[in-house]
Amino acid sequence: MKRAVVITLGCKVNDVESGSLISGLEALGYEVSRELGPAELYVVNTCAVTREAERKSRQTVSKALHENPTARVIVCGCASEKNPTSFAEKDERVVAVLGTKRKGKILEIAGREFDERLPRVQIEKEEIGFEELPLPKRLKTRDFIKIQDGCNRFCSYCVIPYLRGRSRSRSLESVVKEAFASTAYEVVLTGIDISDYKDGNGNTLRELMLALKDARPRIRLGSLEVGLITPAFLAALKEVKNFAPHFHLSLQSGSNSVLKSMNRHYTREEYLEKCRMIYDVFPFAAITTDIIVGFPTETEEAFLESLSIVDEAGFAQVHAFPYSPREGTNAYRRYKELPAAVKKGRVERMLKKAAEGRKRYLEGLTGQTFTVVPETYENGFTDGYTENYIRVYLEGKMGKEPIQVRVQGEFRDGVKGERI
Question: Does the structure show a pLDDT above 70 at 188?
Fold first, then answer.
């Protein structure tokens, strides 16, 4: 049997697309792994969200080339969209370089002997609609369903709109069909900007959630934008019988001046109001967020505003990372990067503040009851996640069915619970 390895870097969208490619490759007769090892074909799905992500993407291609001297390597994803020739010129065994669109071509190439007459770089420049790929192979207790691709927001620090193209959405009917057919205990709706979901019939994310209100799996949403949170949207979520109240609500900065220079279209005050709206409807919701530290226009005063909003918003978790200049963005052209030592120091302070906030949030869950889907058993403990995406550890080995759990207190990277 032919062997293939699909290696994924970056976001959940890449991960879902890789899952689709794995399904397609298996249908072609390949034995497929996600771990680097001996194979005849390697597919590297790259990332370009930061300079480090691009470096790791190039490094991963080099590792694949080293693994088997006679193997074929196909490169796709954001890093290859951004700089395709750097991958095409790396080695003649890199037989094709695709970007973020038409990833289905990979299956065409894998299904036949590579045609030397075809160009090695096959970047699709034209805008296309939502690309339907084979259904991803389910690997865990949750399914990720890609509902949208591309982005129209053009935040000043972000290169993704230039690489992924304009926003485009999968049809409501297609999403609903996959969600209702899922055998997983949980379905996560994901995309580059799912807040901008709008299919060809004008259905928005609100209409999609209402169409999923009777779905058997627990329904969880991927990263959301502030403007999506309205009373009407929250009311729709309340109707979804298995909705998971976890809101990853993008923030990026707690300073209005920095938000403006980032081209983020909301204020600190509006963000906090949206958090209050969520807590009013879902009292034990977990609101998590991303914060970019050390943006070029961030003064010490502005950074302190980002620190303080962590306390005010009551975040369950904060993902903090230093600003990474991306060539081609407005911020790269307009602003001078802050010293590395300043960014490093602020990241450390933000992570400390985030840890304090998470501790407070977890302490507030003590005594509360949640539904946990058991996932793994190790060293005497079964762990799984609550509907608000908190990891719970339970003594002993549990089955795979959802169980009711009472939170006893903070434990490891989550909480300890007892089965009711």
Answer: yes
